[in-house]
Amino acid sequence: GESVGLHLPTLSVQEGDNSIINCAYSNSASDYFIWYKQESGKGPQFIIDIRSNMDKRQGQRVTVLLNKTVKHLSLQIAATQPGDSAVYFCAEVRGWGKLQFGAGTQVVVTP
Amino acid sequence: EAGVTQFPSHSVIEKGQTVTLRCDPISGHDNLYWYRRVMGKEIKFLLHFVKESKQDESGMPNNRFLAERTGGTYSTLKVQPAELEDSGVYFCASSQDLRGGTQYFGPGTRLTVL
Q: Which domain CATH number covers B67?
């Protein structure tokens, strides 16, 4: 798959448990963040976004938390399912929309 | 509605050869972005088109890379001559909003330079 050769941090989670994926960002002036999910052989897929005037945003089974003080984002996935197995990236939106991606976290859901 | 498509899905070439990657954005999306992930590294921005104009090409690694978007529809990314370190996955994304908004990614082109 596309991740061959990459040594990503891995989060192993049991099906049905909650997952928490963390991300640190570098630019204190960043005001828009997006979480992407990438499955093997596919491009990154939008999950949820958050702007800096918020500290929490919820979607379907996902919640993003933003802590601007320590420049930290997290993505929480409730009741993790096998289909959630993928690489998850946080991204800062810079300038005219260009994305600065984090390194990614591999989530492996075990039965 | 068709998503972002990229061609080819895989390309294997020898060092010194030329390769051209193509991206077809979602119809009506003025913004088109190229990114790449080389082995062991994170996904990195290459450049951004607004219609046929280059808005930001700050991520282009060197002058062996040439991107075009004639007519403001599909885009091509040519690597000439290819080097070993160009191997990786090249992604294209498009969006409707100028300041990013939701960028929709294509499946990527895996480029292997031998």
A: 2.60.40.10
Q: Is B22 part of a structural domain of the chain?
A: yes
Q: Tell me whether residues B45 and A98 touch, CB distance under 8 A.
A: yes
Q: Give the residue numbers spanning the domain of B47.
A: 5-97+107-113
| Count of domains forming chain B | 1
d(CA B42, CA A3): 11
Q: For residue A40, give the 3-state DSSP assignment.
A: coil
A-B contacts at Cβ under 8 angstroms: 76
Q: Tell me the CB-side half-sphere exposure of residue B37, using CA atoms within 13 A.
A: 27
Cβ count within 10 A of residue B72: 15
Inter-chain residue contact A43 with B4, CB threshold 8 Å:
yes
Span A24-63, pLDDT tens digits: 988 888 889 999 999 998 999 999 999 999 999 999 999 9
